[in-house]
C-alpha cells in the first residue's frame, strides 16, 4: 500500500473518531471524552497490523460498533469505550484482560471480558444447532454480569451484517441464519426495534436474496406513489393538529422487507395484497403529566377524519409492553379505501422505542417500580441456571417468549401482570411465584372455576387455588406454555422420578437377592441392556413403579444363566458402531414407545401409513379409513392437507408417549357392610398411594350394605393390584373388583 493511501486512511480514521463524539446520544463530559480517547488509542494500537476481509483497516469496525452504541442505542461513555475495545483482548497479544482493568477500571474490563467470551463461543466450526443453542445459553448468562455486554454484541453483529459483502457465500448464510435465530429476537426483547428490523432485513438479504431483491425493487417502484399518498393523508391531520396548537412532527414509516415477507407467507398473499405496507408516526412534545391526555386527544382528532378499525386499536400507553415500549396504535381507513396504521408517541416514548434500554433509564423516575427488563433478566437467570434443561428446548421456549404478543391479566388484588399470548392459568401461577405454581390445584378466572389448561385473555382476573398436597405431574407440561413454568415442572418431575428410583433400587436389590444375583455395576448394566433402557435411573424407576415385575426379573435371571445366550449377547455388543441417525431413532423409540388417540388418550389398534412412514416421536394424527381401521400419518405428510380439508370428521388427534409415564383409567367397585368413617378410610388408603390419582368416587348405602364406584388413574396393573389388596384389608369391606 502506498504512503499516500495510508495517509488518506489515517485522515478517514480521525474523521470517523470525531464523528463518534459528535453523534453521541448522551451528553459527554470532558472526563467521558478523555476515557473514549484513551480507549480509541489502545484500540488503534491493538489493531494496527490488522485488516478486514474488505481490505480496510480493522479499526474502522470497532469505531462503527461504538458509533451504533453511541448514536442508535444511546449508551454511556463506559459502553462506548468498551465497544472500541471489544476485540482488543481476543485479536491481539499486546493486551490481556488484566491490562484493560488497570487502564480502564473494573466495569469496562468486565464488559470486554464478557464480549471476549461470547466471541470465543461463536468461533466453533460447523456448529450444529444443539451446540449453537448451548452457546446461546452461555451467552445469555453474561446478561447477569452486565446487560451492556449483550447490547454491544448486538451492535457488533449489526455492523458485521452491514459489511458482509466480501465474505464467502456459505459464511454469509451461516451468519445471517444465526442472526435470525439469536440476535434479532434479543434486540426485540431489549426494545431495539429499529436494529431488530435492520438485522432481519439484512439476514433475509443473504438467506433469500431473490425474495429480498424482489420486495426491495417493488418498494422502490411504488415509493413515489406511496409518498404522495402519505402526504395527502398527513395533510388532513396536520391541519387539524395545527388548529389545536400541537408541537409535533409527522413521519411516514415503510414496513420492513422482512415483515412484508412474513405477512406474504403467513397470509398467502402477494406483495400488492399486503395492505399495511406503511405507517404514519405522530411524535408530539409534552411534559410527563399531560402525555396520556394529549395522546388520546390526538386519537380523537385522527378518528374524527378517518374511520378507525376498533379491532386494531393497541393501547400500550396505559399498559406498556414488558420491553418498556409505549405508544397508541390506530388503524384507520384512509383515502382510496386503504388501511393506514397511525402510531401516536410522545418524544419520550419515541426515544424509548428507538433506543430501548438506554432511553428507559434516562427517563426512569426515582419512585418507579423495578424495571421490567431487570425482572425479565432475573426470571431468565432462573431458567438459565437449571443445568438439566435441554439447551435446544430452552432456546426454542425462550425465542417463543421473546417474540410472542402479550396479554395483560389482573391478580385478585388488582395488580397487572403481563404474560405471553396463549398463556394458561398454570403459567399465571408460576409467574406469581414458583412455590405457588408447584402447589397449584386449580384456578378461578373472573370468579369461575377453570382447569389449569384454561387459556387466559387480556382483562381476566385470575385467582390461583393452592394445596399443600398438590404437586406437578406429567400432564402439566401439556398445559404450560412459558419457559419459566415448563423448566420448573420438568425439574420437579425429575426430582419425583429420582425419589421413586431410590425406592426402586432397594426393591430391586431385595428381589435380585432372592434370585441369587448381587446388585452391582455389572448386573445393573446387564439389566439395562436386557430391558433395552438407556440409564440405570430408568431401570430403578421402572422397578419402583412396578412396570418391571418379578416375572420379568425371573426371565432375566434364566437368560443370564444361559452361557450360550451370554456369548451371543457379547458378540452382538461388538457389532459395528451405530450411526447417529440410528442412535437418535433408538432414543426416540425408547422414550416414546406407545401411541394414544383422542382427548381421552386411548390405546387403539392402528396401522402406520406407507405414504409418510411415521416413526415414534413424530408429530402425527389418526385417520379413520373405511376398510383398514385407523391409519397414522405425520402432520407434515404430503396427503395431510387434503385429508384434513376433505375428511375433517374422520381425523383423530394422536401422540406418542412414554408408556411408563402414561396413566390409565381404571374403575373399581367396592362393597361391604356400611359403618361410620368407612369412606374416609377408603380415600385415605387411595391418597396415601403416591402413584395413584383418584378421579371420582360415589357411594350408595342400602339397609346397612354399601356399594362404591371409584375411578382411578394408575400407571400399570401392578399398582392397581397392590391398591386392591390394601382396600380389601379395610374393616367392613367384603369385595373389591375391577370393572
UniProtKB/TrEMBL annotation:
<dbReference type="Pfam" id="PF04607">
    <property type="entry name" value="RelA_SpoT"/>
</dbReference>
<dbReference type="InterPro" id="IPR012676">
    <property type="entry name" value="TGS-like"/>
</dbReference>
<dbReference type="Pfam" id="PF13291">
    <property type="entry name" value="ACT_4"/>
</dbReference>
<dbReference type="InterPro" id="IPR004811">
    <property type="entry name" value="RelA/Spo_fam"/>
</dbReference>
<dbReference type="InterPro" id="IPR003607">
    <property type="entry name" value="HD/PDEase_dom"/>
</dbReference>
<dbReference type="Pfam" id="PF02824">
    <property type="entry name" value="TGS"/>
</dbReference>
<dbReference type="InterPro" id="IPR033655">
    <property type="entry name" value="TGS_RelA/SpoT"/>
</dbReference>
<dbReference type="GO" id="GO:0005886">
    <property type="term" value="C:plasma membrane"/>
</dbReference>
<dbReference type="InterPro" id="IPR004095">
    <property type="entry name" value="TGS"/>
</dbReference>
<dbReference type="Pfam" id="PF13328">
    <property type="entry name" value="HD_4"/>
</dbReference>
<comment type="similarity">
    <text>Belongs to the relA/spoT family.</text>
</comment>
<dbReference type="InterPro" id="IPR045600">
    <property type="entry name" value="RelA/SpoT_AH_RIS"/>
</dbReference>
<feature type="domain" description="TGS">
    <location>
        <begin position="405"/>
        <end position="466"/>
    </location>
</feature>
<comment type="function">
    <text>In eubacteria ppGpp (guanosine 3'-diphosphate 5'-diphosphate) is a mediator of the stringent response that coordinates a variety of cellular activities in response to changes in nutritional abundance.</text>
</comment>
<dbReference type="InterPro" id="IPR012675">
    <property type="entry name" value="Beta-grasp_dom_sf"/>
</dbReference>
<dbReference type="InterPro" id="IPR002912">
    <property type="entry name" value="ACT_dom"/>
</dbReference>
<dbReference type="InterPro" id="IPR007685">
    <property type="entry name" value="RelA_SpoT"/>
</dbReference>
<dbReference type="Pfam" id="PF19296">
    <property type="entry name" value="RelA_AH_RIS"/>
</dbReference>
<dbReference type="InterPro" id="IPR045865">
    <property type="entry name" value="ACT-like_dom_sf"/>
</dbReference>
<dbReference type="GO" id="GO:0015969">
    <property type="term" value="P:guanosine tetraphosphate metabolic process"/>
</dbReference>
<protein>
    <submittedName>
        <fullName>MFS transporter</fullName>
    </submittedName>
</protein>
<dbReference type="InterPro" id="IPR043519">
    <property type="entry name" value="NT_sf"/>
</dbReference>
